[in-house]
């Protein structure tokens, strides 16, 4: 099971700044192991960030996103104490959802 | 059909899911919904095919898209990219890396209420132009910038 996603959500100027760091190998499928065998691709394909049941950012990714993906964006609304959820799904069907409180 | 067969074979373990996705892509090549992960768009080997798969055709060059990217990336495995769209009605922002094995890196849907600005980190195989593609009110716009890479991010 993948490690937790680190989420920092900070309220400012009527909006919320969201910084996300996911724990994922983001293997491209282009690399070979020491024995010369190709390492199968394993990467996050879809990310949804929700706030109060509303999707505030939705992303589709290919293999070119760096290992342990970083993502930053801002959305309007959102107050201190409210929660946001970050959910990802990778190409092997693995999923992970994490929650953070806006502060 | 050959292309589709290769895609399915490549998908390996998740073959059935990918077959379904590829089939959906085949049925509506231009209308790949941004909400769905498009095998066709993300599997495209070059910039033109990726733009076609996204339904972007030939985007309009725009100065209203601001890309933040280093001139020189010492490590191609971690290249910070920021993209801000000042075009009204921005619906999505995509990042494409021309010389990567697959050009499309990311496609972000921007719902109303979310600022049309995202930052992330990408891998680059070699020195390449990076394109930021913005969809706004049904039209596609882009800006591009070359980033030099001293150590590639895909080989090792």
Would you write up a description of this structure?
The complex is a heterodimer of chains A (103) and B (156). In chain A, strands 4-3-6-7 form a four-stranded antiparallel β-sheet, with no helix packed on it. Chain A has a three-stranded antiparallel β-sheet with strand order 1-2-5, with no helix packed on it. The model of chain A has no long low-confidence stretch (mean pLDDT 95). Chain A contains no helices and seven strands. Chain A has strands at 6-12, 15-21, 44-51, 54-61, 70-76, 83-90, 95-101. Chain A has one domain: Immunoglobulin-like, CATH 2.60.40.10. Chain A is an all-beta fold and 103 residues long. Chain A is elongated and about 55 Å long. In chain B, a hairpin with a 6-residue loop joins strand 5 and strand 6 (104-109). In chain B, helix 1 packs antiparallel against helix 2. In chain B, strands 1, 3, 5, 6, 8 and 9 form a six-stranded mixed β-sheet that branches. In chain B, strands 2-4-7 form a three-stranded antiparallel β-sheet, with no helix packed on it. Chain B has four helices and nine strands, in the order H-H-H-H-E-E-E-E-E-E-E-E-E. The longest helix of chain B is centred in the first third of the chain and has 13 residues, at 15-27. Chain B has 156 residues and is α+β, with helices and mostly antiparallel strands. Chain B has a domain at 46-151: SoxY domain (Immunoglobulin-like). The chains are: A mainly beta (103), B alpha+beta (156). The interface between A and B is large, with 34 and 41 residues. Strand 5 of chain A pairs antiparallel with strand 7 (117-122) of chain B, so a sheet runs across the interface.
């Amino acid at each position: 099971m993948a490690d937790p996603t680190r989420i920092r959500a900070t309220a400012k100027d009527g909006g919320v700044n969201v910084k996300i760091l996911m724990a994922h190998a983001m293997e491209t499928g282009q690399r070979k192991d020491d024995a010369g065998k190709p390492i199968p691709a394993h990467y996050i394909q879809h990310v949804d960030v929700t706030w109060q049941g509303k999707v505030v950012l939705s992303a589709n990714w290919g293999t070119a996103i760096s290992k342990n993906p970083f993502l930053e964006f801002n959305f309007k609304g959102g107050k201190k104490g409210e929660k946001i959820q970050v959910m990802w799904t990778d190409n092997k069907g693995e999923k992970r959802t994490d929650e953070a409180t806006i502060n | 059909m050959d292309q589709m067969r290769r895609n399915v074979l490549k998908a390996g373990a998740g073959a059935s899911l990918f077959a379904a996705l590829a089939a959906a892509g085949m049925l509506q090549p231009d209308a790949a919904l941004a909400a769905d992960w498009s095998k066709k768009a993300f599997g495209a080997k070059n910039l033109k095919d990726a733009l076609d798969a996204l339904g972007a055709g030939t985007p309009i060059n725009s100065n209203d898209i601001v890309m933040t990217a280093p001139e020189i990336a010492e490590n191609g495995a971690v290249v910070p990219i920021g993209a801000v769209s000042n075009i009204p009605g921005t619906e999505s922002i995509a990042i494409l890396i021309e010389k990567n094995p697959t050009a499309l890196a990311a496609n972000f849907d921007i719902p109303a209420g979310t600022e049309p600005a995202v930052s992330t980190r990408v891998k680059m195989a070699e020195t390449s132009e990076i394109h930021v593609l913005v969809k706004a009110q049904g039209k596609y716009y882009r800006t591009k910038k070359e980033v030099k890479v001293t150590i590639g991010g895909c080989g090792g």
